[in-house]
Amino acid sequence: MARSNALPAQQAHEKLKALGILALNGMFDEMDALGVLRYAVSDVLPGDLAIVSSFGADSAVLLHMVAQVDPSMAVYFLETGKHFPETLAYVERLKSHLGLLHVHAVHPDPKDLARFDPNGDLWETDPDSCCFIRKTDPLEPITAQYGGWVTGRKRYQTRERGVLPHFELTSDDRIKVNPLAYFSDEDVAAYRRAHDLPEHPLYGKGYKSIGCAPCTSIVAEGEDPRSGRWRGFNKKECGIHYDFSGAIASPMSAAKQHALWKDGAFIVDPFKGWVEGTDPGDARYTHVPVAVFLAYREAFLANPHPLGLLVAPGDAVEAVAENLGRFASIAVSFPAFTDGRGYSTARLLRERFGFKGELRAVGDVLQDQIPHMQRCGFDALVVTHEPTRRALLENHLPEMALFYQPVGLREVPLGTRPFLRRVS
């Protein structure tokens, strides 16, 4: 937790603006990592700075500096559940060797894992979502406690990091400190030898940048140290880092702008839109249009991956009634606020065909519609309308106390006598 004498993030942000980011970065020699860290801890964000460490190949160097400047600084380790056993052992070894007093493991939400990665193989098909669930999302509430945080990023690691400064003013009002920005691989190795620091057990085996085991491979001679991360994927960062130009990734606050509302919160959505030309036997986590499903029904039924169904106005859900159990989610489209056919579709799915899975409304979803949608059986909403997002977050949806048309068998319309209702 941030300490009570913490400097408010915005105040520190304004302080750095006043100094001028160029002037601030000009205060230190390129290799004065210890000076950068000491100044950040004592002058820029006293008591309001934490470090996020991967406990990877180069982590011992920065953690050694932390131990010299302030061994009580909070150190957060993202325990994704996918680390090498050697990394977990290395965490304990460095804690003991350096005398770090507050090392905390940050775990992903078990509910997110159960829902989006029940078999633990999401990294194979969607590494960005895997990183979000296991790293970015769990870290957000931690970093929100602090005005800034320290990273071990270095310019030499990738082309995108080649403009990395010592201090960054980020768009989400945080100050990011990169003491090792100008260190080379040789500088790191020399520092480690000079201070007799323990080496990560996998480093000598060719792992130059070490993350989660499934997405980390040995680096060949001449390759970038991070080329062994997410090899074969069009991916370079896990999402928790971005530089001041925004070239590496979007700020975490932007990543939090999820559109899927479920169980009282906006959450990460594992499903993506259907892409024409997708192999029906290989599709996964996509809402398949009804017409496409009917055209390739057997292939989709034989497909072992999670699938959804997209129902547009005019689609006959009766045609897929016998296969509804195949879908983990059904998305019902509302192309316009005035088009109410989706309500009837939802009632058919829930009441006549007994669909028990996720039923989501997509399209023109506005706050006035939501109470009606919920009455008809929708338990998830894809919301992009900003006033509606705010209404959901602030629990300011319109209330519906009276109604004239019942839903299911549990409601009694205004002005009728319940004992005269026919139950079919």
From TrEMBL:
<feature type="binding site">
    <location>
        <position position="215"/>
    </location>
    <ligand>
        <name>[4Fe-4S] cluster</name>
    </ligand>
</feature>
<comment type="pathway">
    <text>Sulfur metabolism; hydrogen sulfide biosynthesis; sulfite from sulfate.</text>
</comment>
<feature type="binding site">
    <location>
        <position position="212"/>
    </location>
    <ligand>
        <name>[4Fe-4S] cluster</name>
    </ligand>
</feature>
<keyword id="KW-0408">Iron</keyword>
<dbReference type="GO" id="GO:0046872">
    <property type="term" value="F:metal ion binding"/>
</dbReference>
<dbReference type="InterPro" id="IPR002500">
    <property type="entry name" value="PAPS_reduct_dom"/>
</dbReference>
<dbReference type="GO" id="GO:0019379">
    <property type="term" value="P:sulfate assimilation, phosphoadenylyl sulfate reduction by phosphoadenylyl-sulfate reductase (thioredoxin)"/>
</dbReference>
<feature type="binding site">
    <location>
        <position position="131"/>
    </location>
    <ligand>
        <name>[4Fe-4S] cluster</name>
    </ligand>
</feature>
<dbReference type="GO" id="GO:0051539">
    <property type="term" value="F:4 iron, 4 sulfur cluster binding"/>
</dbReference>
<keyword id="KW-0560">Oxidoreductase</keyword>
<keyword id="KW-0411">Iron-sulfur</keyword>
<feature type="binding site">
    <location>
        <position position="130"/>
    </location>
    <ligand>
        <name>[4Fe-4S] cluster</name>
    </ligand>
</feature>
<feature type="domain" description="Phosphoadenosine phosphosulphate reductase">
    <location>
        <begin position="49"/>
        <end position="217"/>
    </location>
</feature>
<dbReference type="Pfam" id="PF06073">
    <property type="entry name" value="DUF934"/>
</dbReference>
<dbReference type="GO" id="GO:0070814">
    <property type="term" value="P:hydrogen sulfide biosynthetic process"/>
</dbReference>
<dbReference type="InterPro" id="IPR014729">
    <property type="entry name" value="Rossmann-like_a/b/a_fold"/>
</dbReference>
<dbReference type="GO" id="GO:0043866">
    <property type="term" value="F:adenylyl-sulfate reductase (thioredoxin) activity"/>
</dbReference>
<dbReference type="InterPro" id="IPR008318">
    <property type="entry name" value="UCP030820"/>
</dbReference>
<dbReference type="GO" id="GO:0005737">
    <property type="term" value="C:cytoplasm"/>
</dbReference>
<feature type="active site" description="Nucleophile; cysteine thiosulfonate intermediate">
    <location>
        <position position="238"/>
    </location>
</feature>
<keyword id="KW-0479">Metal-binding</keyword>
<protein>
    <recommendedName>
        <fullName>Adenosine 5'-phosphosulfate reductase</fullName>
        <ecNumber>1.8.4.10</ecNumber>
    </recommendedName>
</protein>
<comment type="similarity">
    <text>Belongs to the PAPS reductase family. CysH subfamily.</text>
</comment>
<dbReference type="GO" id="GO:0004604">
    <property type="term" value="F:phosphoadenylyl-sulfate reductase (thioredoxin) activity"/>
</dbReference>
<dbReference type="Pfam" id="PF01507">
    <property type="entry name" value="PAPS_reduct"/>
</dbReference>
<comment type="function">
    <text>Catalyzes the formation of sulfite from adenosine 5'-phosphosulfate (APS) using thioredoxin as an electron donor.</text>
</comment>
<dbReference type="InterPro" id="IPR004511">
    <property type="entry name" value="PAPS/APS_Rdtase"/>
</dbReference>
<keyword id="KW-0963">Cytoplasm</keyword>
